[in-house]
């Protein structure tokens, strides 16, 4: 039994030393164009989903009105469209160089099938190692709910909101 435990300890130490060497010798992918390291996507996704499920608010007190959606459009265009695009311009130059690539929120299903509280959590807190910044402190709680409601309902927006959203982005 003593030999078995010693073998386990040595095995764990070799594994830890190998992982350290892999990372410290620059063998792990770091560039945005590099292929992900083994299980990177699975590990990150698993941790993110569990954390969001534990902390996300359940529902907004903000009513779903056209005014709230229009305010969400303004916030989205000013803060989100550069990376996440709009329906008329899905891929921006900033988005092309990011890893992982930011989801194009108005192409396909976007996040309209996610609970609005999940989108709120992502906007408020950001997502580590993805380029998604936290907007807590930059946007008010109400503004975060407005853009979250817009995204959660992106598949069923009124025509006036869609028209405002799809106007070409202003070039800097």
Structure summary:
The protein has helices spanning 2-24, 40-55, 66-79, 81-84, 93-96, 116-125, 141-152, 159-166. It has 172 residues and is mainly alpha-helical.
Structure in words:
This protein is an all-alpha fold. It has a domain at 63-165: Orthogonal Bundle (Cytochrome Bc1 Complex, Chain D, domain 2). 53% of the residues lie in helices and 0% in strands. It is built from 8 helices and no strands. It has helices spanning 2-24, 40-55, 66-79, 81-84, 93-96, 116-125, 141-152, 159-166. α3 (66-79) packs across α7 and α6 (116-125) packs across α7 (141-152). The mean pLDDT is 87.
Features:
172 residues; mainly alpha; Cytochrome Bc1 Complex, Chain D, domain 2; 8 helices; elongated
Distance between the amino and carboxyl termini: 69 Å
Strand content: under 5%
* CATH C-level class of the domain at 63-165: Mainly Alpha
The helix/strand order is: HHHHHHHH
For the report, how would you describe the main beta sheet?
none
Overall average pLDDT: 87
Number of helices: 8
* The CATH superfamily title of the domain at 63-165: Cytochrome c-like domain
Write down the Rg: 21 Å
Sum up the overall morphology in one term: elongated
Q: State the helicity in percent bands.
A: 40-55%
Task: Kindly report the CATH topology of the domain at 63-165.
Answer: Cytochrome Bc1 Complex, Chain D, domain 2
Task: Tell me the number of strands.
Answer: 0
Give the uncertain stretches in residue-range form.
Answer: none
Structural class: mainly alpha
CATH-defined architecture of the domain at 63-165: Orthogonal Bundle
